[in-house]
């Protein structure tokens, strides 16, 4: 039985910015052979820009990344 649900709308419990940056770094490293023509910093910055702090659906973000 669920006794509580916690929402972290302001980043108090989880630093979303740091989490998404680490995720994108990991993703870039896994796809490095495909993305080697794109500088890592540019890839990360572009994803963060398109993600708009999580307000844009990820399928839309990835379509715009291509």
Automatic annotation (TrEMBL):
What species is given as this protein's source? Answer: Parageobacillus thermantarcticus
Known SUPFAM superfamilies for this protein?
Answer: HAD-like
User: Which Gene3D superfamilies would you find in this protein's record?
Assistant: 1.10.150.520, HAD superfamily/HAD-like
What is the protein name given in its UniProt record?
Putative hydrolase of the HAD superfamily
GO terms assigned for molecular function: hydrolase activity
> What Pfam families is this protein classified in?
HAD_2
Q: What keywords were assigned to this record?
A: Hydrolase
> Which InterPro entries does this one have?
HAD-like_sf, HAD_2, HAD_sf
